[in-house]
């Protein structure tokens, strides 16, 4: 399924990942779109990365910089990209967010790929 039109062109989305207990954790994140998927840059040791390793189910909704949801929520599946597949994700995020290029800890980042349920 393509990226929902309510998310296309937004600056931030709230990414909900799930703990082992099933409790959702909502995090506002930068994202970029490419080939009907969303890409998110995150720290390797971040909570969202750990939760996605245990449960790839996610929900995504457009939001403000402070995480206030401003549109409908969509169900998706996330996966952590292998290092050799970082290129396209890094490219689209760096193109959308200038500050993403300035990260001092790039070696500790990874990229998530999110596909939406059809």
Question: What does this protein structure show overall?
Answer:
By secondary structure, the protein is of the alpha+beta class. The protein has helices at residues 47-54, 86-96; strands at residues 12-18, 24-29, 32-34, 37-43, 57-63, 74-80, 109-116. It has a seven-stranded antiparallel sheet, with helices on both faces. It is globular. 27% of the residues are buried.
Radius of gyration: 13 Å
Helix content: 10-25%
Q: Describe the strand arrangement of the main beta sheet, using strand numbers.
A: 2-1-5-6-7-4-3
* Biggest sheet features: 7 strands, antiparallel
Q: Assess the beta-strand content as a share of residues.
A: 35-45%
Number of DSSP helical runs: 2
Topology (SSEs and partners):
Elements lengths: L11 E7 L5 E6 L2 E3 L2 E7 L3 H8 L2 E7 L10 E7 L5 H11 L12 E8 L2
Antiparallel strand pairs: 1-2, 1-5, 3-4, 4-7, 5-6, 6-7
Structure keywords:
118 residues, 7-stranded antiparallel β-sheet, 7 strands, 16% helix
């Amino acid at each position: 399924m393509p990226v929902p039109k309510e998310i296309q062109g937004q600056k931030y989305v709230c990414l909900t990942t799930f703990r082992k207990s099933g409790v959702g954790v909502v995090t506002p994140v930068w994202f970029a779109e490419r080939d009907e998927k969303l890409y998110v840059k995150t720290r390797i040791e971040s909570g969202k990365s750990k939760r996605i390793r245990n449960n790839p189910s996610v929900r995504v909704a457009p939001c403000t910089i402070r995480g206030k949801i401003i549109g409908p929520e969509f169900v998706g599946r996330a996966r952590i990209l292998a290092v050799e597949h970082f290129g396209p994700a890094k490219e689209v995020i760096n193109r959308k967010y200038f500050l993403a290029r300035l990260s001092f800890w790039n070696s500790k980042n990874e990229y998530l790929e999110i596909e939406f349920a059809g």
